Amino acid sequence: MKHQKKIYLASKSPRRRELLRQVGIDFDILSLRSDPARAVDVSEEAFANEPALDYVARVAREKGAFGWNLLHLRRMPVRPVLSADTTVTIDGEILGKPADRNEASAMLERLSGRTHQVLTSVALHYTDVFEQVTQVSNVRFAQLSAQTIRAYCATAEPYDKAGAYGIQGLAALFIEHIEGSHSGIMGLPVFETAQLLQKAGITVL
To answer: Which residues have C-beta within 8 Å of that of residue 155, sequence separation ≥ 6?
Structure first.
């Protein structure tokens, strides 16, 4: 495949956009509807008893497949389609995006003083080829006081993020130790993503 200079990103995540720009990847957005009040293009609901690794890989794969089909339906220029999904898990349970302050507070209380896992799966469609990789990081939180949790939940930060926190924001104050990928915890592991893009002929550096 000849070298490409641009891709499609099947994600609305500002963190993923920021990380791609950080490493000089040019992209256009393929917007997927995600408002529960309307029909969603790809459901992010976990199946009953679905393991976190299976869940995050499935959602990333479905986002990419939808984006790949969308660009053909719209007769857009054919370029690689990158998609990703991130989830947080502890005690084998998936922690999604909190619906409200009470749910965010309960998630943070559960993560307080413990180690949890952040999983980000990245999928890439190009020509008739599909590639995927899932990166897992271990994150240890300090013990959080009730006052700290209340103060954090009073900000806008927890509510559009799996596990009710964002490592790139105020929640960086909570994290004692990371084993894995900082960018993966943000939502796009840069090293693994670059490897996939290079396979598709994208010049990364």
So the answer is: 170
CB atoms under 10 Å from CB of 50, counted, come to: 13
What's the residue count for the chain? Answer: 205
Angle at CA of residue 17, ends 84 and 135, nearest 5° = 35
% of the chain exceeding 90 in pLDDT: 81
- Give DSSP secondary structure letters for 121-159: EEEEEETTEEEEEEEEEEEEEPPPPHHHHHHHHTSSGGG
Q: What is the pTM of this model?
A: 0.91
- CA 138-142-146 angle, to 5 degrees, is 130
Of 185, 180, 68, nearest to 123 by C-alpha is: 68
Could you read off the pLDDT of 138-181 as tens digits, one per residue?
999 999 999 999 999 999 999 999 999 999 999 999 999 999 99
Do 13 and 186 contact (CB within 8 A), yes or no? no
| Residue 28 annotated in active site | no
Instruction: Name the catalytic one among 85, 91, 100, 160.
Output: 85
According to DSSP, residue 87 is labeled E
Q: Which CATH class is domain 6-199?
A: alpha beta
